[in-house]
Structures are given as C-alpha cells and as structure tokens.
Design a protein that fits this description.
The protein has 10 helices and 22 strands. By secondary structure, the protein is of the alpha+beta class. The protein binds tryptophan (TRP) and zinc ion. Residues 130, 133, 157, 292-295, 314-315, 318, 337, 382 line the site of tryptophan (TRP).
C-alpha cells in the first residue's frame, strides 16, 4: 500500500475506532500481527530442562486461516534460533526480520484456506524491553537462591509472547491453546486451561493443559517452579461450577496466602454483575519478582507483593474484560483496565464497605493530569487514565442509569462481545441501543473530553 494511503487508513481507524478484527495494523503497535491472518489454535510444547535458567526448547504448531490472499505467513517472533519450519508437514524456507521482529515463512495461502505451521526453536530467551516502562516482557527466569528454587513464567502483555514463541501477537486475533510443558520430575508446571495429562518419562514429566475458549496471546499463563498446589472447593454460581486451584512458591508466607481464600466469594460477586464466568476453572499463581500482576487466562499471575484482595479482584475481572472480550486495538486498554478497576469498587460494596474512598483515590490519581480514554501513545496503555478515569467513567454511567440497567448492560456486553475484538465504539454503540442517547452521551464525554467531566 502507498505510504500516504496507509497513513490515511491508520488515521481513520484511530478516529472512528472501526470495529473489526481486521483493523490491523494497530494504531499504536503497527508492527504487530499480520493483517488477513487468523490463528485459530496454538499447540505449544515447551521443554525447560533447568528451571530458573533462560534456556528452553519450543515447538509450536499454529493452525491458521488466511482471510485474504497471503504471499507469506509472517509471525511475530524475536525468540531463540529456529531449527525447522514446516507447513502441513513439509519443510519450507523462512527468513527472520529484525524490525519489526518477524519470522517470514515463504509459503503463500489462498483466501479462505487453512494451514498448520510448525516451528521448532531452542536457545536462551532474554525477553523484550517494554516500550515505555522499566520492565522486561516475555519469558521470565527467576534464578534459584539459597532459600528458593528456580522458576520460569510468562509475563507477556502487551507484546512479550513473541519473545519465546512465534505468534500472531495481537489481541484482535485471540486463539485457543494446548500447552505441553516438560520439566524435571518434582518441578510443577501449570498453564491456562484444564489439565489433561501428566506423564513421567525418566527424569522428566510432561504436563498438558487445554484452553478451549479463545484468548489473546498475551493472556496465556505458563508457570514452571517448585509450587504448593492448593486445591480449593469448587465455586458454585447460578448455572455454573468452577474448579479452583491456587499455586504458591513454597517460600510464600501464610499471611500472603490468606487473601486468596476469598477468590470464590469474589468470583460469585463479579459473575452476578458481569454475567457467567467465561471459563471452567480459575486460580492464582504467585510469583516472586516485583512485576505488575497479570490476568493470565484461568490462572492469574500474582506477584507476591500484590497479594491483596483488591488486586485479586482486579485480575479476576479481566477474565471477562480482556480475556473473554478481547481488545480490538491497543489504544483501547481502558476497556480492560477501567472495568477491572471498577470491579474493585463492586467487591468493596459487596462487603458493605463505603465506595467513596475508592472514588476519591481514583480522582486523586488524575489531579496531575488526564487524557481522553482512547490512548494515542504506548505510554498511555497502563497509565492512571486507563485505570482510574476508565473506572470513573463506568461509575458515572452506573449512577445515571441505576444498578439494574447497569448490570443488564454489563451482561449484554460480555455476552455479545465474547470472542469478538472490541473497541470503544462498540461499547458506545451498545450504550446507545441498550441505555439510550443520554447515557451514551455521558460515556462519550468521559471518552473524548480532554479534562475530567
Ligand atoms: N494488565 C495488567 C493489570 O492491570 C497490567 C500490566 C500488564 C502492565 N502488562 C503491563 C502494567 C506492562 C505495566 C506494564 O492487571
Ligand atoms: Zn488490569
């Protein structure tokens, strides 16, 4: 495409929030994802022979469909050396590209055709420097210390998955995952979804997990380490039974394990507001590094220092907002963070706490400045406006329409947007049709006005 035409398309997408999965290239991360490529499923086999070290071996098979004619298949990848690439079982040529980091597979696909692309790689994974914050995304290695055995896990949002696996690394292409993890006997390995199998061969064992609800690539949980597996009672909501297991590094003190016992109550409260929980299992995995918490699907990744009810509630809310209902563009992170932050208030109220301190705290986070809710820079993705202004916008809507209409609106949103990449315009459309013009106007002011309404 001509450069100017491409810019015009980008500008239009930014202004209108055009509502389709095919809105790639992303306005803020134009290098991520391949337009016209739809990955349906990833089968991921990871071998971690020495947990805590950055060496791994990975074989991934992506089942994909071309939505338009593709001359090559271009997966996002900046991981270790590639050993082989196959399409439907036959070896094919490939090249690696540095900027943006891609694995270019020289195999053309006609529109509407499917293929299985298998890539094998092995080596040391270093991770990716976040675009704006002082943290490394992707495959994490936590070396053993005198008090704690080594561990590894994935911390991928927004674009760290490509640090160790070739993926169409954009939330507008959610997929299902089968994950096989091979680790030494005595080391635990857990991933998003349901455990299908745990098989020992010699000094290693291979654990297989299956996630049958599509989620963004950044939401896949993978954890390897010496973990206490705490099985909890099943969680019963009207019409659902959800199995619940938490995982703690053996060094986790009891007072930091305690808040996780409330997860079942929190899940029941949130499903009352949001609608049915989108998966069949849930739990948290505690990790020791000082990272942000991350809402990995069915199994949130919780830094030990974030082991508080408020953060547990926030990550659980993302299972609806972000995982089941994926972002259509990175500029819309407030759709994830605003709802997840608002859930903190819903849980406080469920415990009969006064919500005012939370509302005040959110306002206080914005006194230094705020912005319209649609992000225009990577630095905006996880800023105070995405979280606090997003939550205040939802509170303004709730206050205007009342609890019953607000709850019905949330139920419709999660039911109709599940599996569909969603942009701010989709939320506004639904507000207009379900809640009326006045409510939609309120929300629009919160979305677009430079200052705080
Ligand atoms: N989505 C995470 C949460 O709020 C936060 C997060 C993910 C994050 N990746 C990040 C924050 C990178 C800062 C930088 O639960
Ligand atoms: Zn969040």
């Amino acid at each position: 495409m001509l450069r100017s035409a491409r810019h015009l398309a980008l500008l239009l997408a930014l202004l209108t929030g055009g509502s389709h999965a095919t809105s790639l290239p992303d306005p803020l991360y134009p290098g991520l994802g391949q337009p016209g490529l739809d990955v349906l499923h990833y089968d991921l086999a990871l071998t971690v022979p020495r947990p805590g070290t950055p060496w791994l071996q990975v074989t991934t098979t992506a089942t994909l469909r071309a939505e338009q004619a593709l001359d090559t298949v271009q997966l996002d990848y900046s991981g270790p050396d590639i050993l082989t690439v196959q399409v439907d079982g036959a070896t094919v040529p490939y090249t690696r590209q540095a900027a943006p980091p891609k694995l270019v597979i020289h195999h053309a696909l006609r529109p509407g055709t499917e293929a299985r692309v298998t890539v094998t790689a092995a080596g040391t994974v270093t991770g990716i420097q976040d675009a704006t914050l002082p943290l490394r995304l992707g495959w994490q290695s936590v070396p053993a210390t005198s008090t704690q055995p080594g561990a590894n896990f994935a911390f991928n949002e927004p674009d760290g998955a490509r640090s160790f696996v070739p993926v169409n690394d954009h939330p507008a292409d959610p997929a299902t995952f089968t994950t096989h993890l091979t680790v030494p006997v005595g080391v635990s390995a857990v991933a998003s979804g349901t455990r299908l199998d745990d098989r020992t061969q010699g000094a290693t064992h291979t654990v297989t997990y299956d996630l049958t609800v599509p989620v963004p690539t950044y939401a896949l949980a993978i954890h390897v380490g010496t973990l206490d597996e705490v099985r909890r009672p099943a969680i019963h909501t009207p019409g659902q039974t959800i199995s619940w297991t938490d995982y703690f590094p053996t060094s986790t003190p009891a007072d930091l394990r305690a808040p996780y016992a409330r997860t079942g109550d929190i899940l029941r409260t949130l499903s009352d507001w949001f609608g049915p929980y989108p998966f069949t299992s849930y739990g948290s995995v505690v990790v020791t590094p000082a990272l942000p918490a991350l809402e990995t699907a069915t199994l949130s990744t919780m830094p030990v220092r974030s082991s508080r009810e408020r953060v547990i509630t926030h990550e659980l809310a993302h299972q609806w907002f972000g995982n089941a209902v994926p972002l259509g563009a990175w500029s819309d992170t407030w759709l994830n963070e605003g709802f997840a932050t608002y859930a903190e208030l819903l849980w406080a109220q469920a415990k009969s706490q006064d919500p005012q301190p939370l509302l005040d705290a959110w306002r206080a986070r914005l006194t230094g400045g705020t912005r319209p809710l649609i992000a225009t820079s990577p630095a905006h993705l996880f800023d105070d406006s995405a979280y606090a202004r997003g939550a205040l916008a939802l509170h303004a809507l709730r206050t205007q329409v009342g609890d019953a209409a607000f709850r019905a609106f949330l139920h419709t949103y999660t039911r109709t947007r599940q599996g569909h990449p969603t942009r701010t315009a989709d939320l506004l459309d639904l507000a207009r049709t379900q809640l009326g013009l006045r409510a939609a106007d309120t929300l629009t002011r919160w979305v677009t006005q430079p200052d705080l309404p």
